[in-house]
UniProtKB/TrEMBL annotation:
Pfam families: VCA0040-like. Residues 286-311 are annotated as: Disordered. The chain crosses the membrane at residues 21-42, 62-84, 96-117, 123-142, 162-191, 203-221, 233-251, 257-279. Keywords: Membrane, Transmembrane, Transmembrane helix. This is Putative membrane protein. The lineage of its organism: Bacteria, Pseudomonadati, Spirochaetota, Spirochaetia, Spirochaetales. InterPro entries: VCA0040-like (IPR007163).
Amino acid sequence: MKTSQTRPSGSLSGLIQVLQGMAIGVANVIPGVSGGTIAVLVGVYDRLIEALADFFSRTPRWFASLFFLLRIAMGAVIGIVVFVRAVNYAFAHHELTATLFFVGLVLGSVPVLFSLSGSRRPGKAAAAAFVFTALVVIAMGIMQPEQSGRIITRLTPLDSLLLFITGLFSLATMIIPGVSAAFILLVMGYYDTLRLAVEQLNIPVLMVFFLGGVIGLLSVSKFIRFLLHRYHHVTYFAILGLVFGSVFTLWPRQGISFDAAGAAGLFSLLAGGAVAVVLGKRPGGPRDGLAASPEPEQPVRQENPAPGNDA
């Protein structure tokens, strides 16, 4: 007998999606932390990719997907605007503890991503994808700039074009687990510009940036959906490589000292990992919402009785 699962009501479901969007938004404020990884952990990654990829198609679920995207976007904006100061404060005054919490969160997502890959043994292509993507992110971490360039507060035509292109690339990478949109902004020299624009609600700067970002998101989502459907196993091992590489970019350069601050940092690391594990195992989490590629059904063999053997 089938047991029916209790599903949240419409208003509660909408609130949950806003909260999930907030978690994704907060992640995108922090260089090295991937909003895509958080989307996997909170169980919305698969639906997010499908909704973005189908944005211009006339599917029966178009309106439902649109409202889903609006709730996630609303939550992300709230998360960025409300928590950007808190995140900046945490990293300014408790850098080691804050950094190691997010390292734990990223490492805790590895078992979830591995289970979603649909295979326990990576093939040659999957292993190559893992190594390649990990090395790419590590190389980006090594080349991480110390300063994030000049801060733009008033737009010129050239600044508008460059900011549009920055939004195109940084938000397009936002939905790739293991790739940090904030880190891309740091590399491109626009992190401080966007951080200040959010803190001061500089609408012209934010509008140009997000216009490019929306176009990037809608474009890349189709390609990611194609990879997940066509090369599911290899794609997930490529994502795992990105996640492992991002740990290198996040890991505190000063190391962990054997004192009270170091102990607090290690506790924070374990707490971040525990949060990721709990999110990954909860009902409705990524293992439920983002199923691994289905195994092909085995054909049923029908044995025909040999002639002359009838009783």
